[in-house]
Design brief:
The structure holds 2 protein chains of 2 kinds.
Chain A (H helix, E strand, L loop, with lengths): L1 H12 E4 L10 H12 L1 E8 L6 H8 L17 E11 L2 E11 L10 H21 L15 E6 L8 H10 L5 E5 L7 H17 L12 H11 L4 E2 L6 E4 L2 E8 L2 E4 L8 H11 L1 H23 L14 H109 L1
Parallel strand pairs in A: 2-4, 2-5, 5-6, 6-7
Antiparallel strand pairs in A: 3-4, 8-9, 9-10
Helix pairs in contact in A: 4-5, 8-9
Chain B lengths: L33 E2 L14 E5 L5 E2 L6 H13 L1 E8 L6 H8 L24 E9 L2 E9 L14 H19 L14 E6 L8 H10 L5 E5 L7 H17 L14 H13 L2 E2 L6 E4 L2 E8 L2 E4 L8 H11 L1 H23 L8 H9 L1
Parallel strand pairs in B: 4-6, 4-7, 7-8, 8-9
Antiparallel strand pairs in B: 1-3, 5-6, 10-11, 11-12
Pfam families (chain B): Septin
Family (chain B): Belongs to the TRAFAC class TrmE-Era-EngA-EngB-Septin-like GTPase superfamily. Septin GTPase family.
InterPro entries (chain B): G_SEPTIN_dom, P-loop_NTPase, Septin, Septin3
Chain lengths: 429, 370
């Protein structure tokens, strides 16, 4: 335990010294307490139980207030968790109380998944604390701690034994949260049945290896009362916010035609014991256990899952730093490799496309040449034709010219002849 | 009881001559019938796995017992005990060891017996730490006094704060390593320096350059409380003037000593701390010898012209400093060290190495690559 550690260390490297006067550091606990009081405390309770078993009523009775709750239906398709936070204050102590209720627990036809939601919720709270703790810039002393400090498991007062759902759920939760089993609606069981029921429950829990929360017995001031209370587990409770007049006082009670069950009467039920244990004696221990045992276990498992180790295969201590550095290098290399790959693929694609385009270009070029050739051919053909046409035209015009010339000659010859004739004719006269 | 130091003068062991002050037990809170809590607007949504909502707290009818958590917490802390690490820095002969012994009313600091200068002044600054377990009123405290012989004693004192700074950072590093382990100890041993008493030589003029350099380099890594040593060499006027000058010089250089202004939490804190800051640096006198004054035995220094009473507030400010350091701000010193100085160191360290955030490693590496 921590104290013996400190003591042993103290003996090893620190000599005990006696003071010769009053120094004043015995006010240290007061200083610490004052600081904590000004910051306020927080406490988170998880209530697991079937619908209608009396969870909300018990919370109301326990904290003497009327938390605004409403009844839930019995037809929820899945188990849900509803968390509500309240600010309570008593004298100068401020408490931020969060009560988480399960909604629809045990109502489904198939209850295999019921506990999973609860486990997930608890893990989520641990996770967010772990995240905060691992941040570089963190503010742990301002952090609103939402981890579940106590889990009240409500057992139905059948009088026989635990249901299998109860066993399975508690087994899943015992390493994650402090479980305090309570027997709900204890006014339906007679005293003798109750005694047998309690023994049966405890033996079942033990035989199934379920570790419920044991009230701490190492501190002399509280060990006696805690040991006694450990023997009374699970507490058989009755909750009520109604008041009935008994004698000349108003007490919280449930009124039946055959009598009145007083909530705060220790002969009637164990409510007072539960309140004593949960709030007045062990609240701080519950918080401490949650932080030092359950949270540490979660953290260790989570970090190991991610591959962090305290010692590497050669059993040399490896710091989280180095492991992380190694991982980071790995990751960077991975990134680089992927980048290379992508670049390669890109280059490949570009080449392919280029080839394609070249191919197309060549094709087009070929076509173009062909067309050009055709065109040239056509043109030369046309040229030929034109030439022949011109030739024809020129030969035709030559012929025409020759013919005209002949005609011209013939005409002048005729006209000369005619003139001669005329002269001849005229000469006769 | 420890053996008396024989010096020829009449010295008795400090036993119950100075009666221990009775600390008033804290009043048990009366059981109230009506307590009014603060109310929040309730809003509930049970979607998915869990819904977060805040509910209204109504009036508590009757006593529940929530305030017993104070007692529970107190019991727990008394069981586990406390650690406190105090460092003293100053030139030789300023009375550091005597002051520590006076503060904790025991031979915590091992003085060289007889003040003989057989021990050579070290060539460099050494760090010597001695631990003791002391108990008072059921409270166990492991007190570690870290002495720095050789500080400011060489001819060339440049960088003489470096070994000290290194030591302080080493303690932070040790704590960080423990905190970062997968399987952690239940209670990480705390060797971090919670408080550094810096001894100012009572020249009456101003701070030396050495003083300013040291405080400049270290005021952001550790809580520094400056004290004026051997204050019986200053008259009242000289004292006031000196203090004012020192405070002004520190302000001009931007040096914040404990209690730092920036960490005042609320108005009440601020006004309390302002009053203290006005009287700092404390002008102290230390002594472990007792003399008879007015029929009482008091700790003091006997001179030819009178007896300087250590615990007399008119003579020097020792009791003021002791009350401040031990009786009211001890826990706060530890908290400022843990919540602020250690966190600063941690953030810087993790930033240099690219972060320690396993879950979103991709984000961090990208950020650190930029």
């Amino acid at each position: 335990m921590a104290t013996s550690d400190v003591a042993r260390q103290g003996e090893r490297n620190a000599r005990p010294l006696s003071l010769s006067g009053h120094v004043g550091f015995d006010s240290l606990p007061d200083q610490l307490v004052n600081k904590s009081t000004s910051q306020g405390f927080c406490f988170n309770i998880l209530c697991i139980g079937e619908t209608g078993i009396g969870k909300s009523t018990l919370m109301d009775t326990l904290f003497n207030t009327n938390f605004e709750n409403f009844e839930s239906s019995h037809f929820e398709p899945r188990v849900k968790l509803r968390a509500q936070t309240y600010d309570l204050q008593e004298s100068n102590v401020r408490l931020k109380l969060t009560i988480v209720n399960t909604v629809g627990f045990g109502d489904q036809m198939n209850k295999q998944e019921s506990y999973q939601h609860v486990v997930d919720y608890i893990d989520t709270q641990f996770e967010s604390y772990l995240q905060e703790e691992l941040k570089i810039k963190r503010s742990l002393h301002n952090y609103h701690d939402s981890r579940i400090h106590a889990c009240l498991y409500f057992i139905a007062p059948s009088g026989h034994s635990l249901k299998s759902l109860d066993l399975v759920t508690m087994k899943k939760l015992d390493s994650k949260v402090n479980i305090i089993p309570v027997i709900a609606k204890a006014d339906t069981i007679s005293k003798s049945e109750l005694h047998k029921f309690k023994i049966k429950i405890m033996s079942e829990l033990v035989s199934n290896g379920v570790q419920i929360y044991q009230f701490p017995t190492d501190d002399e001031t509280v060990s006696k009362i805690n040991t006694a209370m450990n023997g009374h587990l699970p507490f058989a409770v009755v909750g009520s916010t109604e008041e009935v007049k008994i004698g000349n006082k108003m007490v919280k009670a449930r009124q039946y035609p055959w009598g009145v069950v007083q909530v705060e009467n220790e002969n009637h039920c164990d409510f007072v014991k539960l309140r004593e244990m949960l709030i007045c004696v062990n609240m701080e221990d519950l918080r401490e256990q949650t932080h030092t045992r359950h949270y540490e276990l979660y953290r260790r498992c989570k970090l190991e899952e991610m591959g962090f180790r305290d010692t590497d295969p050669e059993s040399k201590p490896v710091s989280l730093q180095e492991t992380y550095e190694a991982k980071r290098q790995e990751f960077l290399q991975e990134l680089q490799r992927r980048e290379e790959e992508m670049r390669q693929t890109f280059v490949q694609r570009v080449k392919e496309k280029e080839a394609e385009l070249k191919e197309a270009e060549r094709e087009l070029q070929g076509k173009f040449e062909q067309l050009k050739r055709l065109h040239m051919e056509e043109k030369s053909k046309l040229d030929e034709k034109r030439k022949s046409l011109e030739d024809e035209m020129s030969s035709f015009s030559k012929k025409k010219a020759a013919a005209e010339l002949l005609q011209g000659q013939a005409f002048t010859a005729n006209s000369n002849l005619k003139k001669d004739k005329d002269r001849k004719n005229s000469g006769f006269m | 009881m420890h053996t008396a130091v024989s010096r020829g003068t009449a010295v008795k062991s400090m036993s119950e001559i100075v009666p221990p002050e009775v600390r008033p037990k804290p009043a048990v809170p009366a059981k109230p019938t009506h307590v009014v809590p603060s109310a929040n607007v309730p809003h509930v949504h049970g979607s998915g796995a869990a819904g977060q909502g805040s509910g209204g707290g109504s009036t508590l009818l009757g006593y529940v017992g929530i305030d017993t958590i104070i007692e529970q917490m107190r019991k727990k802390t008394m069981k586990t005990g406390f650690d406190f690490n105090i460092m003293v820095v100053g030139q030789s002969g300023l009375g550091k060891s005597t002051l520590i012994n006076t503060l904790f009313k025991s031979q915590v600091s091992r003085r060289s017996s007889g003040w003989s200068r057989d021990e050579k002044i070290p060539k460099t600054v050494e760090i010597k730490s001695v631990s003791h377990v002391i108990e008072e009123g059921g409270v166990k405290m492991k007190l570690t006094v870290i002495d720095t012989p050789g500080f400011g004693d060489q001819i060339n004192n440049e960088n003489c704060w470096e070994p000290i700074s290194k030591y302080i950072n080493e303690q932070y590093e040790k704590f960080l390593k423990e905190e970062v382990n997968i399987a952690r100890k239940k209670r990480i041993p705390d060797t971090r320096v919670h408080c550094c008493l810096y001894f100012i030589s009572p020249t009456g003029h101003s701070l030396r350059q050495l003083d300013i350099e040291f405080m400049k380099h270290l005021s952001r890594t550790v809580n520094i409380i400056p004290v004026i040593a051997k204050a019986d060499t200053l008259t009242l006027d000289e004292k006031t003037e000196f203090k004012q000058k020192v405070r002004k010089e520190l302000e001009v250089c931007g040096i914040e000593f404990y209690p730092q202004k920036e960490f005042d939490e609320d108005q009440e804190d601020k006004s309390d701390n302002d009053k203290i800051r006005e009287t700092m640096p404390f002008a102290v006198v230390g002594s472990d010898k007792e003399y008879q004054v007015n029929g009482k035995r008091v700790l003091g220094r006997k001179t030819a012209w009178g007896i300087v009473e250590v615990e007399n507030p008119n003579h020097c400010e020792f009791s003021l400093m002791r009350d401040f350091l031990i009786r009211s701000h001890l826990q706060d010193l530890k908290e400022v060290t843990h919540n602020i100085h250690y966190e600063t160191y941690r953030a810087k360290r993790l930033n240099d190495n690219g972060g320690l955030h396993p879950v979103s490693s991709s984000n961090d590496t990208q950020e650190s690559n930029l």
